[in-house]
Amino acid sequence: MDDRTFRNAMGKFATGVNVITTLADGEAHGMTANAFMSVSLNPRLVLISISEKARMLDKINTSGKFAVNILSDAQKEYSMHFAGQMKETHTVEFDWMDGVPVIKNALANIVCNVQSKQIAGDHTLFIGEVKDINFGEGKPLTFYEGKYGEIVEKEIRQEI
């Protein structure tokens, strides 16, 4: 199979959109990602996957910390900014948790210390031990088949 076939199949899995942030060399850095998952409740662990081509790889390796910022459906611009999809430059004002930059008003900010990492193909998988969490209200920004989406609420009726 070719790369496009694989990517198209993976695009059938709807995901939330996250911005991974870290502090390296005295500067806040961010990268849009959807490769994120919860790993363990005890201890509290999450996993992110970073491409070997991404500048964020060296930043997380240097800092040993990262935050996963789960975006709301009102934060598409943040996703596009950190994915390099916007022509104009934007200044992002970060909040800070445990010395790590986080996206303001995200659905959740999950601050982690790198617990371990594993090279897997052309990516590095970082397992992060969760140190702090902040969360708010709203609907998630989603991604499906290469496009942003939204959650539409439907009334569910059950017959008894």
TrEMBL record:
Keywords from the named record = Oxidoreductase
Could you tell me the EC number(s) of this protein? 1.5.1.-
UniProt KW Chaperone keyword:
no
Say which domain of life the source belongs to: Bacteria
Q: Is the keyword Phosphoprotein assigned to this protein? A: no
Q: Which InterPro entries match?
A: Flavin_Rdtase-like_dom, NADH-dep_flavin_reductase, Split_barrel_FMN-bd
- What GO annotations for molecular function exist for this entry? oxidoreductase activity
- Limits of the Flavin reductase like domain: 10-150
Q: What is this protein called?
A: Flavin reductase family protein
